[in-house]
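Bug report (template v2)

What were you trying to do?
Predict the complex of my protein with adenosine monophosphate.

What happened?
Run completed; filing so the output is reviewed.

Input:
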Amino acid sequence: MISLQSDELLETTVGQHMIEADKVAHVQVGNNLEHALLVLTKSGYTAIPVLDASFRLHGLIGTNMIMDKIFGLERIEFEKLEDIHVEEVMLTDIPRLNISEPILKGFGMVINHAFICCENDEGVFEGIFTRRVVLKQFNKYIRTLNK
Ligand code: AMP
């Protein structure tokens, strides 16, 4: 097993590796499911954060949650999309990271989650820490070890 302990990478924080909030596709509390489905489809992501007007994180909304809500007994009830708000179906019990936490904590969390939402000390959403970022850093690190 390779020991990563002395590497500089481990001294970096989650905030140094996240995708910044202004580049993260999201929806707002109060948006309906039609809007959320549009953002999800256009962005190509299966789940995105739900924020309020002050950029505080309320949960995650995914295509599966939306589809599950509109599955009727005999058909998919697309007409319901307009009348249901994201907060009625979003997942609220979600993992979070503070931007100042060590990258190692993020590494552990993306084993079970494709991305983790990051907040500052005031609870304001700052971005997301993704599996892709972790794999990129890991790939870079392994290559430096082999030089
Ligand atoms: P990745 O590790 O890049 O495959 O991203 C994992 C997950 O993070 C994606 O499936 C999305 O749910 C989410 N994600 C990544 N980038 C963005 C983004 N720019 N905006 C919103 N969600 C994102």
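What did the reviewer find?
The longest strand covers residues 57-62. Strands lie at 19-20, 27-28, 47-51, 57-62, 96-98, 115-119, 125-130.
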